[in-house]
Design a protein that fits this description.
By secondary structure, this protein is of the alpha+beta class. It contains 14 helices and 39 strands. Helix content is about 20%, strand content about 30%. Bound molecules: alpha-D-galactopyranose.
Amino acid sequence: MSIIYDEKQKTISLHTKNTTYQMQIDRYGFLLHLYYGRYAEGCMDYLLTYYDRGFSGNPYEAGTDKTYSMDSLPQEFPSLGTGDYRTPACIIKNTDRTYCSDFRYVTHTIREGKYSLPGLPAVYADDSEAQTLEVVLEDPVTGVLAVLLYGVLPEYDVITRSVKIVNASKGYISVKKLAPACLDLVGGDYDFLTFYGRHAMERNCQRMPVGHGTSKIGSLRGTSSHQYNPAVILAEHDATEDAGSCYGMAFVYSGGFQSEAGKDQYSQTRLLMGFSEEQFAYPLNPGEDLQSPEVIMTYSGEGLAKLSQNFHRCIRTHLCRGKYKETVRPILINSWEASYFDFTGESLLALARQAADLGIEMFVLDDGWFGNRDSDLRGLGDWKVNEKKLGCSLGELITKINGMGMKFGIWIEPEMVNEGSELYREHPDWAFVIPGRRPNRSRYQLVLDFSRKEVVDYIYEQICAVLDQGNVEYIKWDMNRSLADIYSATADSQGRVLHDYVLGLYDFLERLVNRYPNILIEGCSGGGGRFDAGMLYYTPQIWCSDNSDAIARLDIQYGTSFCYPCSAMGAHVSAVPNHHTGRVTPLETRACVAMAGAFGYELDPDRLSDADKAEIRAQIARFHQFYDLLQYGDYYRLRAPATGCSVWEVAAPDGGEALVTAVYKTVEANAGLVRVQVQGLAPDTRYTVTLLQHEGTDRPHPEFLRPVVLTGRELERAGLVLPPARRDYQAWQLHLTRC
Ligand code: GLA
């Protein structure tokens, strides 16, 4: 039993293998949060303190007891109106135009299995793997309900949370703020880890102390965004990769969001994750409800590496779906950086032929194959194959590519329209434009109003008509601008449109994965502008960044790895000088970095030397050799890129082998040696450490070529000494195998 209700103490405890989460229904019916941390038994209400605190009011029922205040007690679902002046998880505008909600416990149920959320992505699990807790809270004055859902996956140390607001009142209400996850911690000295960025430089890790006042990150863009990622961590100030307490929250949502962390007047910490408040006012008529997306929460008492591994395992095995969750994914070549919009059917076939010759397994036709799209000025919305440009039908092109022994994939951007398109001429009101205003353009395109079903239906039919023309086995689903000019002609309230847009997107994706269960979908939004757990439910991999420079990718993939598994990160070897940074890095380094993701290529093989080609063949063989380890192994960040030598490790879950990859930023004369403590090995087992030498790999100093035998304990405690760089951007891979 992972969920236990103690009738006497009125506590509900959620236990996972290594963690415990506890709440209590108190004497006034408030649902208080008692504890989240290492596995523990017993009742933790001794952690609550009751003092007479000035300017912290008391609920009426407390009578003359000035020591009881919701302003200081930790809560499960804080709302405005109970005397808690901290940041609330929920604000509702009631029928009488007041903003007060006073939620009290009504009932709860515990059931086997994990709840699902209609129309929304969510973690899934068998009845034997999970339990669900549902707690019903009610504002007795308005009758509005808050139904709290908790999913507990004991083996994964994961607890998920969602909330449903039910308008059981007699009039119209509107939900102004909703954060399904709130974590009130009575003590501690925490840092807030967030992942900020920009187009072509996503998910840089920022670690800042949680102070008095609220630190808030989020996205107002209608998508999860390049600028802030909807996954955050609260870590003890002195927590490291392998020690200390840390809490993670990953929002399973692809729209606007916000996460807030702060200390209250008593230095207690609150962390929230939910919808962005801007342009949000979700209308509910009597009887209607709003189900929030869920948040995946995990706790590690053993530092950040364990926290990340918890996220990775859960996302990989209980959020990602479909054939390619388990099946080996093909190594692809994408046409974008090879030819951009400038191609013909013949040039594509030449590219595919050369890629096939290198051992690449799938050809992906990127942007430019439809309508009159020869640049980013026009064409989006007209999903008709440009047979003139291809010189044949799409079906014929695919047949030829399949004939080379390659799979075929295609790029689409269904949520968009250019003003220069048939679609826009016919349905100008299908794009987000506010009547009387000129819209913001971005990359010359406007966003289609996916909050309207007829728009989603129409585009869905167009896209299916393309996919049905041949043996398409992969889709790159792109989305190349932020939302603006939010106005939907048919909506009863504009405050619902941004969320309904995301529901429209999910509806489209759900229909697509059901109709084409064998197609692998890769998400993309100008690279990693919509890299979130919501998308991973439909697209098991997401193009990590448009920036394919191996050195920039060290930071991008490092930040991404805190919450997302390697199998989710689209990563390609591209040409040098890099198209985004102009940097020239060794082909070996580019491959080592891309292998820490969903591996592929994005270059023109025609411009490669024979030596490069031989090297690529060897890389492909190496990726196959290490596929299971790289995709399903336990990931460790051994040294951050900021140290100048970025080192990561993937260890087999049974400790049988590990692959350590190191990338130096610069070579130094007479350098000191880098030593890393290898993790995840069996202490008493002996391992042979071999520096991998492949076609194109540099020769290290000779002493590093001799295989070394060390025990797991030695490797973890004393560490492994890495060969120094022989040139800038040097990469080394060391393979550790059980003797
Ligand atoms: C976005 C993507 C790129 C490429 C282009 C095509 O920028 O991130 O990979 O597909 O669009 O227009």
